[in-house]
Design brief:
The protein is mostly helical. The chain has 17 helices and no strands. The chain has 2 domains: 1-194, Up-down Bundle (Growth Hormone, Chain: A); 202-415, Growth Hormone, Chain: A (Up-down Bundle), CATH 1.20.1250.20.
Amino acid sequence: MRGSIRRQLVLVFGFVFIELLGYSLVLPLLPYYAETFGASLPLVGMLGTVNALSQLIAAPVVGRLSDRYGRRPLLILSIVGTFVSFLLLGLAGSLATIFVSRALDGLFGGNVALARAYITDVTDEKNRARALGIIGAAFGLGFIIGPAMGGFLSRLGYNVPALVAAGLSLINLVAVVLWLPESLAEDTRQRMHNSPQTAFTLRALWEALHQPCCAVLLQIALAYSVAFALFQSNFALWAKTRLGLDAQGTSYILTYVGMLAVVVQGAAIGRLVSRFRERALILAASLILAVALAAWALTPNLVSLLIVLAPVALAGGLLNTILPSQLTKAVRPEEVGGILGLSTSLQTLAQIVAPVTGGVLLDAVGAWAPGTAASLLMIWAGWFVWRRLASQPDIGPPNTEPEWRLSTERTGIDL
């Protein structure tokens, strides 16, 4: 990998880390902050819903605009929006202002998808999954450090973490403006700007979905996102109900999972993709996750839980990295931003659906139900991968039309 590309990857790593550090500073404290303005429990829940719905709508739009106008301008715009949203949150004088800040953050919250699109531009297909894994590690590190840092800062006031997050966003903005170059060469950017594939229309996005294997990969990504969100969003309640753990014990366990995921995405991904086909890794990770989630559902004690969570982190880290990598190869280069934005929207949809579904299952059926439902989803995903993708060659270079036709014929997918 050339030195200039390494520098770009280091800058993007720092960007994602600081972005997620700021986000995770604020997220755990939002309920307490909103309650100081008299918010009821339903209104506190709606804060997360407003943010998620905004991102659900905006992520494909931001991604598609980056295909047309370049990654750097949209990164700058996204960071400005994030900065303003955190500043509003820190200076909020009413509950309405908090809602506006969360909606604004969702509308401009395509930063990670844009970072993945940037990496796609500057890496080849051989090195892409490894580079995306490094970004996943930055994502995980931000979420490990942020909550603890936010809890410490909250002693000074619940608005202080939001103001610190705004300061981190400002640092990101300055770094991108001064040091991060555009990922696309001038001639490539001009070609993409004039391409009908980057037109800002629903029809253009719909056509991108009809590229070989794209719809299949998105369905697998949605199943994985819902399954993992069932685990993640209901883990604290499950730990309290099943094992009697308190909030501190649960936070330590989630930190342990986060650290395992960082190791997988930062160190193991590169070695695995150099030895095995990406589609085979998707199949293996889907089946491992299915077994691990079923084991989680039935875990009787803390020791066995710590053992079970290792394959959960391994498989989750693999899928979180390799699915975006495969998606970038399933569309033309000028459609990468839009499809990664759409993938982000599906993840957001999962985060809306899974907490409610898991809570209902846990309350009405039992502590084993969310894990079992998540396991069944991953069994379906594994079967789907086996039927549609795993036995077929990996997707070839996406910018050569003969390979596109060949990929369609080999997979037998009628999209």
